[in-house]
Design brief:
Elements lengths: L3 H8 L4 H13 L21 E9 L2 E2 L6 E2 L2 E8 L7 E10 L2 H7 L11 E2 L3 E9 L7 E4 L9 H4 L25 E5 L4 E2 L19 H10 L6 E5 L6 H10 L4 E6 L2 H7 L6 E4 L5 H14 L9 E4 L4 H10 L5 E4 L12 H6 L2 E4 L8 H9 L9 E5 L3 H9 L6 E5 L3
Parallel strand pairs: 11-12, 11-14, 12-13, 14-15, 15-16, 17-18
Antiparallel strand pairs: 1-4, 1-6, 2-3, 5-7, 5-9, 5-18, 7-8, 8-10
Helix pairs in contact: 5-6, 8-9
């Protein structure tokens, strides 16, 4: 039996809400090491035999013969807990955000690296239950994309687009965030030492919705005094692009989107001006943009950094039409459609179109700091719901009925 003094020693390094649980785990579980009877400190928690999960068994698709849509299937099931390899940990999930990318996999025909059935979800926060000794008991945010840290791309500082990267809900085998637990590489986890007044589940949105805008601003080279347009400013990522642009020092942020109530909200969180693009083509939006610039003594035809965050054709067309002299277009949103654009304009404008994918794990602690000190506000844009509502949440998100990004919390 473990002595009380040992439990007291361990308690110095754990938050109070974990102490009782860890005490029980120590008492209940004594694991033999391969060559001795020493305590396995890296596996102080009970490891479940099964992971409770919501799997995407089948995405929506068209019947190849009739062209009729065949509905997708999300099913609650159990999957094995794999043996942890060196450098891996098992995380008990606190919350997982529902992202537009998940909807693309389920509804939009976007293929996953791991073919169904698999569990979706890549915006994850949780507590390390087993694995690397130094991390057990720690609250963490799991990066949405985890590089190998060994290849030439990683060595060049572009590990966010590592070709061997692991992404929960896509390329991490069958494992994703809409589950009770998930096995992940330990190397790049973002440890949450003090989450202040935030619930751990709330911080799940950092693992994409907030870090992706940070990486996008880095790719843009955004600096103090720059002028910015965010196409898709009311979306789950776009709302944070506006805030992040201001955090990077943007002088002016103009937001473009469709929902009047959300556009009004955007004016409180990063946007200086907004344009409702409902019923307007790209040229009409560009004209309204020019009118705002004229009214506020801003340049209308040069130097703007434009973030395209919608991933849909109308938003992309607007962004392409706004790109002008010595400007930059940062491509954040993803869609399967093709775009038409005269590339010679880039030469004539001396302009740039830059793609950006995910976020390097090394930036996560800085983004976490921005959230914890409330430079970036997440609460006006997030809500927590039980994971049992996943089907309803997917449907609401797909039909654009949500005012906030939903983080699903465990209730298996």
């Amino acid at each position: 039996m473990l002595e009380e003094s040992s439990i007291l020693f361990v308690s110095r390094f754990l938050t109070c809400d974990r102490l009782d649980r860890v005490r029980a785990h120590f008492i209940r579980k004594q694991i033999k090491c391969s060559n001795s009877r020493a305590w396995a400190w890296g596996r102080m928690a009970d490891i479940p035999e099964k992971i409770q999960t919501w799997q995407m068994v089948q995405p929506w698709k068209k019947d190849p013969e009739t062209g009729k849509l065949i509905g997708g299937k999300l099913e609650k099931t159990e999957i094995p807990v794999p043996p942890l390899q060196p450098g891996e940990v098992l995380v008990e999930i606190a919350g997982c955000g529902v992202c537009h990318t998940d909807l693309g996999y389920f509804y939009g025909g976007v293929p996953t690296v791991t073919k169904p059935p698999l569990t979706l979800g890549h915006e994850i926060s949780g507590v390390v239950e087993a694995g690397e000794e130094k991390l057990v008991g720690k609250e963490v945010i799991i990066p949405a994309v985890m590089p190998c840290n060994k290849c030439p791309i990683c060595a060049a500082g572009r590990g966010n687009r590592c070709l061997a990267q692991k992404m929960p809900g896509n390329s991490l085998g069958i494992y994703g965030g809409f589950s009770s637990h998930i096995p992940v590489p330990a190397e790049d986890l973002c440890v949450v030492e003090n989450r202040c007044d935030f619930q751990l589940a709330e911080l799940a949105v950092i693992a994409d919705a907030v870090t992706t805008p940070y990486q996008a601003c880095v790719r843009a080279g955004l600096k103090q005094g720059d002028n910015v347009v965010v196409v898709g400013v009311t979306g789950g990522v776009g709302s944070y692009v506006a805030q992040m642009a201001k955090a990077f020092g943007a002088k002016t942020v103009i937001g473009i989107d469709l929902n009047p109530a959300k556009l009004e909200r955007a004016l409180k969180y990063g946007a200086d001006f907004v344009i409702n693009s409902t019923g307007k083509d790209a040229k009409a939006v560009r004209q309204e943009f020019r009118e705002i610039c004229k009214a506020h003594s801003l340049p209308s035809h040069y130097g703007w950094i434009i973030f395209e965050v919608t991933g849909v054709a109308p938003g992309q067309e607007i962004a392409l039409n706004l790109l002008s002299f010595v400007g930059k277009l940062i491509w954040v949103g993803f869609g399967m459609q093709k775009n038409e654009y005269c590339l010679s304009r880039l030469m004539a404008f001396d302009a740039e179109i830059v793609g950006t994918w995910g976020c390097l794990p090394k930036y996560y602690p800085k983004v976490l700091e921005l959230v914890l000190n409330k430079t970036i506000k997440i609460r006006p844009f997030t809500e927590l719901r039980p994971m049992s509502q996943i089907k309803e949440v997917f449907e609401e998100a797909h039909n654009r009925k949500l005012m906030k990004r939903v983080v699903l919390t465990l209730n298996f």
